[in-house]
Amino acid sequence: MAAKPILYYFDGRGRMESVRWLLAAAGVEFEEVLLETAEEFDSLIKDGKLMYQQLPMVEIDGMKMVQTRAILRYIAGKYNLYGKDLKEQVLIDMYTEGMKELSDLFMLVPFAALEDWEKSVKFITEKATQRFLPVYEKALKDQGKNYLVGNQLSWADVFLLEVILMVEECKSDALSAFPKLQEFKAAISKLPRIHKFLQPGSPRRPPMDEAGLEAAKKLFNLEKGLLFKYSTIVLVEL
Amino acid sequence: MAGKPKLYYFDGRGRMESVRWLLAAAGVEFEEVLFETAEDFENLIKGGKLMYDQVPMVEMDGMYMVQTRAILRYIATKYNLYGKDLKERAIIDMYVEGMRDMNDMIMLFPLSLPEEKQKNLNYILERATQRFFPVYEKALQDHGKNYLVGNQLSWADVQLIEVILMVEELKSGILSAFPKLQEFKARVIKLPRIQKFLQPGSPRKPPVDDASFEVSRKIYKIDKNLVLKHMS
Fold it and tell me: Are A98 and A128 in contact (CB under 8 A)?
C-alpha cells in the first residue's frame, strides 16, 4: 500500500507551493518535512537524497524526485490531470510554462533589493496583465467553458488559479479587465478539493514575509548563484 | 500530408538548439525561418502566432508551439524518446531539467560583464564537474547500460550529448574524471542520426561569437542594462 508523499522544503511557498496545489487538486494527502537550518539542509545533501543538492524534493512512489517540473509532470500524469492525448498535453505544457515564468517572477519579488520593491511589483504585475493573463482569458473565451484545455480539470487550471491569486495579492483588481478569468476563478475555487485547500489549516502557505525571507536566506545560503539585473530591478536566480 | 516542422528563431543556438538536436535524433527533417533584424521579429509578433510574443516557436502538426520545454516534450513523446512508462519519464525529466539548468548558464554566459567572465566561467565548470556530470556518471555506472534511462535512446541521452559538447567547447578535457561519460560520448556520437547532425552542413549552429551575439542583442532588444552578475 502506497505511503503518502513526503515534501521536503522550508516552511514557505517558494517552488514547492505549486506541488502542494497539485497534490491537493488530485485529492492526495501528503506529509511535509520543513527544514529550518542550513545544517538540516546539509544533512539531506550528505545523505545523498538530493540528486542536484537542491530542493524541492518529494519522496513519492519509491522515488526521491527533484526538479519542480519533473515532480509536477509526474503528479499530473499519474492523477489524470494532463489531458487526454498528446495534443492536449502540449497545450497544457504551453500554458503551464508561461504560468511558471510568471510564478517565478512573483516568487522572486521578496528578494528584490528593498529600494526596488515597488518597481519590481509594478514590473511584474504589468507582465502578468499584459503578457500572460490575456492569453488565458482568450483561451477560456475560445473554449467556452471553465477549463483551459479539453473537457476536464487539468494541471493548467490548477496552476492558473494559483497564479491568479498570487497576482491579486500584489494588485487586488488585477482581473478587472478579464471577465472570463473572473468566472474561472469563481468556478474553480468552488471545486471541493480546491475549496478545501483554500481553507485555513490547509497545507497552503501564506505569502512570504520578512521573517520568512530571512529564514530562506539562511537556509539556502543565497550568496551563491547568478544575479540578473534589469535596469534597477534585481532578480535572483536560485 | 504533414509538412516538415518549421523552426522560427534567429540564426544561432540559444534555446532552439535543443530542439534541433532532438528532431535530428528523431530522424525528422525540418525547415528554419531565421530572422535577422528586430523588424523580422516584430512582424512575427504582429502576425499573432507567438502565444507569449516569444520565440522559440515551432510550427508542427497544425500547431504553433512555443515554450521550449513544451516543444521538446511533444517531440520526445511523439517519437518515442520519452521512456516506456511514467516512472521512466520521471527519471528522464529529472535528468533533462538539470541539463537545462546547465544549458541556461552556458547560454547566458556571453552576457557576463567583461570583468566577471572568468569568474562565471569557473562557476559553470565547477557546477558541471561537481553537481551535474557526477549524477549522470553515476547513473551510467550503476546500471551499466548504454543509455541513461531504460534500454533505448531517450531525450535524456540527446540532451546529455549536447551539454557535454558545449561544456567541452568552454574547456576541453572536462570529462577527464568521468570515464563512463567518455564512453557514453564516444558511443552516442557514432549513432547515425547524431553523426549526421555533427557533420558540417547540418542544421547544428556554431558556438556564440561576438558578432552573432550582437545580432541577437539587436533582435531581442536586450537592454544594455541586462547583465549577468555573479556573486560568489
Answer: no
> Residue ranges of the alpha helices (H) in chain B?
17-25, 38-46, 68-78, 86-108, 117-127, 133-143, 155-170, 179-188, 192-197, 210-219
- In degrees, to the nearest 5, what angle opens at C-alpha B138 toward C-alphas B132 and B140? 110
> Looking at chain A, which residue has its C-alpha nearest residue B62?
A87
Domain topology for B6-79+199-231: Glutaredoxin (3.40.30)
Q: Which of B65, B93, B223 sits opposite A230 (nearest CB)?
A: B223
Residue B109 pLDDT > 90? no
Chain A CB contacts of B93 under 8 Å are 67, 69-70, 73-74
Q: pLDDT band at residue B227, thresholds of 50, 70 and 90?
A: very low
CA distance linking residue B210 with residue B214, whole number of Å: 6
User: Alpha carbon A16 to chain centroid distance?
Assistant: 7
Q: Look over chain B and give the mean of its residue pLDDT values, rounded to a whole number.
A: 91
Q: Domain spanning B86-192 has what CATH number?
A: 1.20.1050.10
- Say which residues have a Cβ less than 8 Å from residue A226's Cβ, sequence separation at least 6: A237, B105, B108, B120, B123, B228, B229, B230, B231
Residue B101 to residues A85, B8, B221, Cα–Cα distance (Å): 28, 23, 24
- Residue A137 within any structural domain of the chain: yes
What does DSSP say about strands B57-60 and B63-66: parallel, antiparallel, or unpaired?
Answer: antiparallel
Contact B13, B207 (CB under 8 A): yes
Residue A118 sits in a domain of what CATH number? 1.20.1050.10
pLDDT of res. B208 = 85
B59–A contact, CB cutoff 8 A: no
Q: What is the mean pLDDT of residues B203-222?
A: 80
